[in-house]
Design brief:
- The protein is built from 1 helix and 39 strands.
- The protein is mainly beta.
- It has a 5-stranded mixed sheet, with no helix packed on it.
- A hairpin with a 2-residue loop joins β5 (42-47) and β6.
- The protein is globular, with a radius of gyration of 24 Å.
- It starts with a helix and ends with a strand.
């Protein structure tokens, strides 16, 4: 059997493809008539781009960095020829109480390798209700090197997790901004990972790192750093920021960075945007080129060093950019289509009427119907409270002509940072970011119907409800399966 499989695959290792069926995932096995092979001393396992060398016999359960129940997920045992037989147990879900068992014989000896489907260090998350909008929920965490994908029933379908010596502390930089992308009918995923070579540049709100691009099977296919800026100030290979990433194609994207640079005689953290197409920078933008931004002081945020704090980008239908700057409580439309980088208009959230005002906002999105939605963290309100806003905006001038709250959290929830808001017709999802209220800070993402009623939610366990939890989410969003 072993020799036949190898001939059919025409490879020197055996690929174990796990196929989804109604009763679970099919276990794969090898059997051989011989038992006189020299016994293997390790099993070499390949899963989602990661390799593991498991000494035999394995006395403790193994944790993986990544696992998926998607029907394209696979295991590869790279030294399968060293075994007389291998049998992989079926598994249907990822959970802390579920294991995969790999039974083997080699050189007349038998054993079992047990693999935890979910490591114990992953935060406990509780699902409530059932999602209605077709798609999956994508979670990322500020202080955990963890990204997760959930279905509408609250089941984990994929995760990547890498604990470090600083895990569970505020000095840890997590995996941020887990996204799904589709280009030319093919699915990609990406997330921001810290680059430890640049760890000394980190400060509160800045996670210097790199964008990891994955294929449809969650296999890493590219690692993205900044290229040299058009003015020559920034060299190749510099770290990028993890707040947002705009994907056109695997070779065409917009990234952001925070760069220490002089502004009016002061060293400040300058916001930098860079558009790359086929390995060349075709457009970039520096906040220090717009000296007026340094005069837009805030009564809520310290604008002394991190004076603008970029956190979201949208490419508008006219080719220009809508960008959010948290520490200025401002949204800017920036000329990309004409290539000038000029500021076309500004919406200053703290100057609007109370029902429309916003501060410390995230995830600003301008829609085709002239409405603009955003996650209003609400840091600057008299009583800090997070609101979900939909404003009526003239896209040509930025004038706000009406609108206000579409979901009032009832004054009982405040997210000091991060967060998201997505519209799906008349339904919407809210990623709740980082809350600091003791006993009332467990929300990760919720889905709501047209009346604002919650129909589904993912929350951290109440046991993890301490203030300033290191399990706070960065950005939790939903993407369709199309």
């Amino acid at each position: 059997m072993k020799r036949q499989l190898i001939r059919l695959k025409e490879i020197t290792t055996v690929l174990f493809t796990i196929v989804a069926v109604t009763t679970g995932l099919i276990a794969c096995s090898l059997d051989d008539d011989t038992s006189d092979n020299a016994p293997a001393t390790e099993m070499r396992l390949y899963v989602n781009g990661d390799r593991y060398r498991i000494p035999l016999p394995a006395t403790e359960a193994i944790n993986l960095k990544s696992l998926s129940t998607d029907n394209k997920e696979y295991f590869r045992i790279e030294n399968a020829n060293a075994f007389n037989s291998i049998r992989v147990s079926p598994f249907t879900e990822i959970a802390k109480d579920k294991q995969i068992e790999i039974a083997y014989t080699t050189g007349g000896q038998s054993g079992v390798i047990r693999i935890n489907t979910l490591p114990a260090g992953v935060p406990d998350i509780v699902a409530e209700g059932k999602g209605v909008i077709p798609g999956h929920f994508y979670l990322s965490f500020i202080f955990q090197r963890l990204i997760m994908k959930y279905d509408n029933d609250g089941k984990i379908t994929y995760y990547r997790y890498e604990p470090t010596t600083k895990a569970g502390t505020f000095t840890e930089n997590g995996y941020w901004d887990f996204k799904k992308h589709v280009f030319d009918g093919k699915t990609y995923y990406s997330y921001h990972a810290p680059d430890d070579k640049f760890a000394n540049r980190a400060f509160t709100g800045y996670n210097p790192g790199m964008r990891i691009l994955l294929d449809e099977n969650y296999i890493p296919v590219d690692t993205i750093h900044a290229l040299a800026s058009l003015d020559g100030y920034l060299p190749d290979g510099e770290p990028i920021d993890g707040h947002d990433f705009y994907f056109f194609s695997p070779k065409h994207y917009i990234l952001s960075a925070y760069i220490n640079r002089e502004v009016d005689g002061k060293q400040l953290s300058v916001a930098y945007l860079q558009e790359v197409d086929n390995g060349k920078v075709v457009f970039d933008w520096w906040s220090n080129d717009h000296t007026e931004m340094a005069t837009w002081t805030s009564t809520t945020f310290d604008t002394g060093y991190d004076y603008v704090h970029f956190n979201s980008i949208q490419v508008l239908p006219d080719g220009n950019l809508l960008c959010s700057f948290r520490h200025l409580s401002s949204l800017l439309k920036i000329d990309r289509a004409g290539g000038t980088g000029n500021i076309i208009w500004r919406i200053a959230g703290e100057t609007l009427p109370e029902d429309q005002a916003f501060s410390g906002q995230h995830y600003a999105t301008l829609h085709d119907d002239g409405t603009l939605t955003l996650f209003d963290n609400g840091n600057g309100h008299a009583k800090p409270v997070t609101r979900i806003l939909r404003l009526n905006v003239d896209p040509a001038t930025g004038n706000v002509t009406g609108g206000g709250n579409i979901l009032n959290s009832g004054g009982d929830y405040f997210s000091q940072a991060c967060g998201s808001l997505q519209m799906f017709g008349n339904r919407f999802t809210v990623g709740w970011g980082w809350s600091i209220e003791e006993g009332n800070n467990t929300r990760l993402i919720t889905e709501h119907d047209a009346d604002g009623k919650e129909v589904f939610g993912l929350r951290r366990s109440q046991d993890d409800s301490k203030p300033n939890s290191t399990n706070a989410s960065y950005r939790c969003v939903k993407y369709s399966d199309n």
